[in-house]
């Protein structure tokens, strides 16, 4: 369950990133033909920074426990990292509904991200570009 929630959260951000990247460009970078191509524009040092930052976030968010046997030894729920600034966990019924919605949206985002990624690799067009120029097969 922990992995499903984590992958779902990452894919929700990834789908947003694939769409936004077609419209927004940082001034110091040039866009590739598709957002997938932009991955190869980033210098290797930048990719290593992302890799180590993600590792540090994983390490600190799990309280320095990296194995599934250790992570849940204190009884925490899967996906609950103790970050609730809006107080969404006060009502147990609403919390249960939000958790179910998060899992369902995460599953949809995983499928959407995979579909968008493969669509861009196969067609060489961004998702929005392809939708704007869509022609049905006759």
Helical run tally = 6
N- to C-terminal distance: 43 Å
Helices and strands, in order, run as: HHHHHH
Question: What is the multimeric organization of the chains shown?
Answer: single chain
Let me know the average pLDDT. 80
Structural class designation: mainly alpha
Overview of the structural elements:
With 138 residues, the chain is mostly helical. It is built from 6 helices and no strands. Helix 1 crosses helix 5. The longest helix has 32 residues. The radius of gyration is 19 Å and the shape is globular. The termini are far apart. The mean pLDDT is 80.
In short:
With 138 residues, the chain is mostly helical. It has helices at residues 2-20, 35-38, 44-61, 68-71, 92-123, 127-132.
Q: Keyphrases for this structure?
A:
138 residues, mainly alpha
Secondary structure layout:
Layout: H1 2-20, H2 35-38, H3 44-61, H4 68-71, H5 92-123, H6 127-132
């Amino acid at each position: 369950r922990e992995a499903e929630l984590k992958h779902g959260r990452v894919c929700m951000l990834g789908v947003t990133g694939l769409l936004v990247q077609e419209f927004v460009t940082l001034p110091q970078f040039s866009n590739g033909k598709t957002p997938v191509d932009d991955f190869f524009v980033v210098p290797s040092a930048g990719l290593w920074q992302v890799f180590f930052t993600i590792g540090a976030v994983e390490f600190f968010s799990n309280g320095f426990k990296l194995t599934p046997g250790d992570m849940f030894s204190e009884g925490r729920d899967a996906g609950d990292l103790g970050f609730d600034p809006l107080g969404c966990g006060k009502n147990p019924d609403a919390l249960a509904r939000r958790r179910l919605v998060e899992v369902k949206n995460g599953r949809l985002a995983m499928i959407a991200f995979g579909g968008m990624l493969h669509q861009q690799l196969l067609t060489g067009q961004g998702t929005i570009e392809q939708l704007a120029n869509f022609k049905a097969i006759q």
